[in-house]
Amino acid sequence: MNVRRRSSAAALAAIAVIGAAAAPAVAADPSPSSSPSRTAPSGLYGTTDPQYDGVWRQSLALLAQDTAGVVPSSTAVKWLTDQQCANGAFAPFRADPAADCDAKTPIDTNNTAAAVQALWAVGGHGDVVKSALGWLKSVQNEDGGWGYSPATPSDANSTSVVVGALTATETDPEKVVKDGKSPYDALLTFALPCADDKGAGAFAFQPDKDGKLLPNADATAAGVLGALGEGLVAEAADKADAASCTDADKPTREGAAANAAAYLTATLAKEGHLVSALGGSADQPDYGNTADAVVALAAQGGADKAAGPLAWLERNAAKWAAESGPAAYAQLIFAAHATGTDPRDFGGTDLVEKLNATGPAPQGVAAKDTASANADEKSDEKDDDSPFGVWWFVGVCLVFGIGIGFLLSNRNKKQQP
């Protein structure tokens, strides 16, 4: 490996970072720009009542920051870890984390799986992750899937978000079985056949009271990611052929994902975005599900397949995100990431800056983007006339530093459960 030389200024900056890593304690993060309200505890992103979405939005916020190369606030991470019950599960929100969870605590699979993905991403919380995964496995249904709450029927959304938690932690979903059935087996039971006139290839949330599968765009976007073994953060696939629905006697999970992508493509083609109806009112643009669909389409067929709805989001989603808060900014960051779009210039909006402003200031930036890093390397090569280079300089200082403390080189290392 070739290590390029750096200027003295870069060396001093490197030592400053090493010094911070070696410190035995981390200073408290700055407080949010606005004083936390009664319903927005310190450390939590967003100011609205967290009763129903505190852990969910916190998890998405931390995961989005990590995806964008931001080191989250330790206060924000601690807020999330403190929400865990002793059995490993998470509820949407616990006002008093010091109190024991009991039978009335509304623990669920969705918040637990989202917290797993976030805490695994930021690293350093292997015990929390292991406990949460253990609880998720303990409440797996006999069909291989999960419902929102323990002992409730499996649904496509809950099963998919748990699959995301498994794969994020390098746990093979095919090996997480109950009565011989895996999460993928459960997901395939929610897939509509191509012969269905109204929902060819779509995923249903779960069968209705008559056992019929009805197409659901939200469940379809989730189902694509779940069937592909992807989490909330997904990478774009290599370019694929145009999505089309193809029936098979026994469809594979990849085939079901392709069929579902075809359904999303056809649905999005109507207006360029997904829609939702609220209590008898006229259909409204569904920004969140459109963002999820962008991630799903990119993960299944490549970034080009999501170009249309992505462009619509870039033109229209800024106001929605500002009104909806941190989870909305996170969803847009996930859409940007999946399509290789800059989240700091998403239709003219810096999504990362906006997200960061909704809670405790982050610790810093984990890494520069590739273009900036390469530009800095070239600049440093021209300016650096030192005969030794940065790593010699850093090494000397580290030797000196051994006498005053230990280098905690693994403090942020991700721990496998």
**Proportion of beta-strand residues:** under 5%
- Return the string of H and E elements: HHEHHHHHHHEEHHHHEHH
Outline: globular
Kindly name the structural category.
mainly alpha
**How many β-strands, per DSSP?**
4
Helix content: 40-55%
Tell me the Rg in angstroms. Answer: 23 Å
Number of helices: 15
User: How far is it from the N-terminal to the C-terminal residue, by CA?
Assistant: 31 Å
Major sheet summary line: 2 strands, antiparallel
> What oligomeric state is this?
single chain
Low-confidence stretches: 1-38, 367-417
Mean pLDDT: 82
Strand order of the largest sheet: 1-4
Please render the helix and strand layout as text.
Blueprint: H1 8-22, H2 54-67, E1 70-71, H3 74-82, H4 109-122, H5 126-138, H6 156-168, H7 183-188, H8 217-228, H9 253-271, E2 275-276, E3 284-285, H10 287-301, H11 307-324, H12 326-339, H13 351-356, E4 364-365, H14 370-383, H15 390-401
Antiparallel strand pairs: 1-4, 2-3
